[in-house]
Prior knowledge:
It is built from eleven helices and nine strands. The protein has one domain: Alpha-Beta Barrel (TIM Barrel).
Amino acid sequence: MLQHRLVAHRGYQKLYPENTLLAMRKAIEAGARYIETDIQFSADGVPVLYHDMAMKRLSGVENLIGNLTLAELQALSSHEPDRLGDQFSDEPIATLAQLVALLEEHPEVIAFVEIKRSAVQILGLEDTFDKVAACLQPVAEQAVLISFDYDFMAYAKQRGYPRRGAVLQAWQDLDSEAVRAGDPEFIFCDLEKIPPQADLGALTPRLVVYEVADPDQAIALFERGLDMIETFDIGGLLHALGRHAL
Protein backbone atom coordinates (compact mmCIF):
# COMPACT_ATOMS: atom_id res chain seq x y z
CA MET A 1 0.00 0.00 0.00
CA LEU A 2 1.33 3.43 -1.01
CA GLN A 3 0.66 5.00 2.40
CA HIS A 4 3.10 2.52 3.93
CA ARG A 5 5.89 3.50 1.54
CA LEU A 6 5.96 7.26 2.20
CA VAL A 7 7.22 9.11 5.28
CA ALA A 8 6.15 12.67 6.11
CA HIS A 9 9.49 14.41 6.66
CA ARG A 10 9.06 16.73 9.66
CA GLY A 11 5.33 16.41 9.09
CA TYR A 12 3.61 18.13 6.15
CA GLN A 13 6.54 20.53 5.85
CA LYS A 14 5.75 21.87 2.39
CA LEU A 15 2.58 23.62 3.58
CA TYR A 16 3.08 24.01 7.34
CA PRO A 17 5.94 24.87 9.72
CA GLU A 18 8.11 21.82 10.21
CA ASN A 19 8.07 19.70 13.35
CA THR A 20 4.93 21.34 14.72
CA LEU A 21 1.87 19.48 15.90
CA LEU A 22 0.01 21.23 13.10
CA ALA A 23 2.37 19.77 10.50
CA MET A 24 2.03 16.31 12.04
CA ARG A 25 -1.77 16.47 12.17
CA LYS A 26 -2.00 17.74 8.60
CA ALA A 27 0.30 14.95 7.40
CA ILE A 28 -1.95 12.36 9.02
CA GLU A 29 -5.04 14.04 7.58
CA ALA A 30 -3.39 13.88 4.14
CA GLY A 31 -2.99 10.11 4.53
CA ALA A 32 0.44 9.66 6.10
CA ARG A 33 0.94 6.49 8.10
CA TYR A 34 4.60 7.28 8.79
CA ILE A 35 5.75 10.64 10.12
CA GLU A 36 9.21 11.83 11.14
CA THR A 37 10.39 14.44 13.62
CA ASP A 38 13.60 15.74 15.20
CA ILE A 39 14.38 16.04 18.89
CA GLN A 40 16.30 18.72 20.73
CA PHE A 41 16.16 19.52 24.47
CA SER A 42 15.22 22.58 26.46
CA ALA A 43 17.58 23.93 29.12
CA ASP A 44 15.65 21.98 31.74
CA GLY A 45 15.94 18.72 29.80
CA VAL A 46 12.53 18.45 28.14
CA PRO A 47 12.54 16.85 24.66
CA VAL A 48 10.95 19.12 22.04
CA LEU A 49 10.22 18.75 18.32
CA TYR A 50 12.87 20.98 16.75
CA HIS A 51 15.55 20.52 14.10
CA ASP A 52 18.12 23.28 14.56
CA MET A 53 20.07 24.26 17.64
CA ALA A 54 19.95 27.90 16.52
CA MET A 55 16.42 29.30 16.66
CA LYS A 56 16.57 32.01 13.99
CA ARG A 57 15.23 29.95 11.05
CA LEU A 58 12.34 28.33 12.87
CA SER A 59 11.39 30.87 15.51
CA GLY A 60 12.90 34.16 14.31
CA VAL A 61 14.91 34.73 17.50
CA GLU A 62 18.64 34.91 18.11
CA ASN A 63 19.20 32.16 20.64
CA LEU A 64 19.95 28.47 21.03
CA ILE A 65 17.12 26.16 21.95
CA GLY A 66 19.18 24.55 24.70
CA ASN A 67 19.58 27.92 26.43
CA LEU A 68 15.86 28.28 27.20
CA THR A 69 13.65 26.41 29.63
CA LEU A 70 10.45 24.79 28.45
CA ALA A 71 8.44 27.64 29.97
CA GLU A 72 10.54 30.15 28.01
CA LEU A 73 10.20 28.13 24.79
CA GLN A 74 6.43 27.95 25.21
CA ALA A 75 6.33 31.75 25.05
CA LEU A 76 7.82 31.53 21.55
CA SER A 77 6.58 30.03 18.29
CA SER A 78 7.85 27.65 15.63
CA HIS A 79 6.57 29.23 12.43
CA GLU A 80 9.51 29.49 9.95
CA PRO A 81 9.09 33.23 9.32
CA ASP A 82 11.48 33.49 6.35
CA ARG A 83 9.68 30.70 4.46
CA LEU A 84 6.09 31.11 5.62
CA GLY A 85 5.84 34.69 6.87
CA ASP A 86 3.61 35.35 9.86
CA GLN A 87 0.69 33.10 8.92
CA PHE A 88 1.61 30.51 11.58
CA SER A 89 3.09 32.89 14.16
CA ASP A 90 0.85 31.45 16.88
CA GLU A 91 2.05 27.87 16.35
CA PRO A 92 3.89 26.81 19.52
CA ILE A 93 7.02 24.76 19.86
CA ALA A 94 5.78 21.22 20.48
CA THR A 95 7.01 18.76 23.09
CA LEU A 96 7.65 15.09 22.52
CA ALA A 97 4.92 14.38 25.08
CA GLN A 98 2.42 16.15 22.81
CA LEU A 99 3.49 13.97 19.90
CA VAL A 100 2.96 10.90 22.09
CA ALA A 101 -0.59 12.06 22.77
CA LEU A 102 -1.15 12.50 19.02
CA LEU A 103 0.12 8.97 18.37
CA GLU A 104 -2.22 7.63 21.02
CA GLU A 105 -5.06 9.22 19.04
CA HIS A 106 -3.80 7.50 15.88
CA PRO A 107 -2.67 3.94 16.62
CA GLU A 108 -2.29 3.31 12.87
CA VAL A 109 0.55 5.86 12.62
CA ILE A 110 4.27 5.19 13.16
CA ALA A 111 6.65 8.02 14.08
CA PHE A 112 10.36 8.09 13.36
CA VAL A 113 11.91 10.09 16.20
CA GLU A 114 15.33 11.42 15.24
CA ILE A 115 17.66 12.18 18.11
CA LYS A 116 20.00 14.95 17.01
CA ARG A 117 23.70 14.41 17.57
CA SER A 118 23.93 17.84 19.20
CA ALA A 119 21.46 16.70 21.86
CA VAL A 120 23.50 13.59 22.63
CA GLN A 121 26.69 15.64 22.82
CA ILE A 122 25.13 17.94 25.40
CA LEU A 123 23.25 15.45 27.59
CA GLY A 124 25.24 12.26 26.98
CA LEU A 125 23.98 8.86 25.90
CA GLU A 126 22.33 7.82 29.15
CA ASP A 127 20.39 11.01 29.95
CA THR A 128 19.31 11.46 26.33
CA PHE A 129 18.02 7.92 26.12
CA ASP A 130 16.37 7.96 29.55
CA LYS A 131 14.42 11.15 28.87
CA VAL A 132 13.27 10.14 25.39
CA ALA A 133 12.50 6.50 26.18
CA ALA A 134 10.50 7.44 29.29
CA CYS A 135 8.41 9.87 27.26
CA LEU A 136 7.84 7.37 24.43
CA GLN A 137 7.04 4.43 26.71
CA PRO A 138 3.24 4.57 26.14
CA VAL A 139 3.72 4.35 22.35
CA ALA A 140 7.03 2.48 22.08
CA GLU A 141 5.74 0.19 19.34
CA GLN A 142 4.62 3.22 17.32
CA ALA A 143 7.86 5.18 17.79
CA VAL A 144 11.09 4.20 16.04
CA LEU A 145 14.23 5.83 17.44
CA ILE A 146 16.63 6.96 14.70
CA SER A 147 19.87 8.94 14.73
CA PHE A 148 23.06 9.80 12.87
CA ASP A 149 24.76 8.96 16.19
CA TYR A 150 25.60 5.27 15.82
CA ASP A 151 26.77 5.01 19.43
CA PHE A 152 23.38 6.26 20.60
CA MET A 153 21.58 3.64 18.52
CA ALA A 154 23.84 0.89 19.87
CA TYR A 155 23.07 2.15 23.37
CA ALA A 156 19.34 2.10 22.62
CA LYS A 157 19.68 -1.55 21.59
CA GLN A 158 21.65 -2.31 24.73
CA ARG A 159 18.92 -0.72 26.84
CA GLY A 160 16.26 -2.76 25.07
CA TYR A 161 14.37 -0.09 23.13
CA PRO A 162 12.23 -2.17 20.75
CA ARG A 163 12.36 -0.26 17.44
CA ARG A 164 15.47 1.42 16.06
CA GLY A 165 16.93 2.83 12.87
CA ALA A 166 20.21 4.35 11.71
CA VAL A 167 20.61 7.50 9.62
CA LEU A 168 23.72 6.97 7.51
CA GLN A 169 26.53 9.46 7.67
CA ALA A 170 27.95 7.80 4.53
CA TRP A 171 26.66 4.99 2.27
CA GLN A 172 29.68 2.80 3.00
CA ASP A 173 28.74 2.81 6.69
CA LEU A 174 26.09 0.20 5.82
CA ASP A 175 28.71 -2.49 6.34
CA SER A 176 30.27 -0.96 9.44
CA GLU A 177 30.24 -2.55 12.86
CA ALA A 178 29.07 0.79 14.28
CA VAL A 179 25.79 0.58 12.34
CA ARG A 180 25.35 -3.17 12.88
CA ALA A 181 25.74 -2.67 16.64
CA GLY A 182 22.41 -0.85 16.69
CA ASP A 183 20.66 -3.73 14.87
CA PRO A 184 18.50 -1.28 12.89
CA GLU A 185 15.05 -2.15 11.60
CA PHE A 186 15.31 0.84 9.23
CA ILE A 187 18.16 2.56 7.41
CA PHE A 188 17.73 6.21 6.39
CA CYS A 189 19.98 7.74 3.74
CA ASP A 190 20.21 11.02 1.83
CA LEU A 191 19.51 10.32 -1.84
CA GLU A 192 22.65 12.23 -2.82
CA LYS A 193 24.81 9.79 -0.85
CA ILE A 194 23.60 6.67 -2.68
CA PRO A 195 25.78 5.38 -5.54
CA PRO A 196 23.90 5.19 -8.87
CA GLN A 197 24.63 1.46 -9.18
CA ALA A 198 23.54 0.54 -5.64
CA ASP A 199 21.06 -2.33 -5.33
CA LEU A 200 18.40 -0.70 -3.20
CA GLY A 201 16.51 -3.94 -2.69
CA ALA A 202 19.44 -5.87 -1.25
CA LEU A 203 19.27 -4.64 2.34
CA THR A 204 17.74 -6.57 5.21
CA PRO A 205 16.73 -3.41 7.10
CA ARG A 206 14.10 -1.37 5.29
CA LEU A 207 15.74 1.45 3.36
CA VAL A 208 14.22 4.95 3.58
CA VAL A 209 15.59 7.58 1.17
CA TYR A 210 15.20 11.33 1.59
CA GLU A 211 14.45 13.97 0.26
CA VAL A 212 12.11 13.16 -2.68
CA ALA A 213 9.12 15.16 -3.94
CA ASP A 214 9.12 14.37 -7.66
CA PRO A 215 6.76 11.46 -8.47
CA ASP A 216 8.83 10.27 -11.46
CA GLN A 217 11.92 10.12 -9.30
CA ALA A 218 9.95 8.25 -6.63
CA ILE A 219 8.73 5.67 -9.16
CA ALA A 220 12.27 5.18 -10.49
CA LEU A 221 13.57 4.58 -6.96
CA PHE A 222 10.80 2.10 -6.16
CA GLU A 223 11.61 0.27 -9.41
CA ARG A 224 15.21 -0.02 -8.19
CA GLY A 225 13.95 -1.89 -5.13
CA LEU A 226 13.64 0.95 -2.63
CA ASP A 227 11.37 0.29 0.35
CA MET A 228 10.32 3.80 1.44
CA ILE A 229 10.64 7.48 0.57
CA GLU A 230 10.74 10.43 2.95
CA THR A 231 9.22 13.63 1.60
CA PHE A 232 8.34 17.15 2.68
CA ASP A 233 5.33 17.04 0.34
CA ILE A 234 3.45 14.08 1.75
CA GLY A 235 0.05 15.14 0.42
CA GLY A 236 1.31 16.01 -3.04
CA LEU A 237 3.27 12.81 -3.45
CA LEU A 238 0.45 10.61 -2.17
CA HIS A 239 -1.87 12.26 -4.68
CA ALA A 240 0.58 12.06 -7.60
CA LEU A 241 1.40 8.40 -7.01
CA GLY A 242 -2.14 7.37 -6.14
CA ARG A 243 -2.85 5.85 -9.55
CA HIS A 244 0.34 3.77 -9.63
CA ALA A 245 0.61 0.21 -8.36
CA LEU A 246 3.45 0.57 -5.87
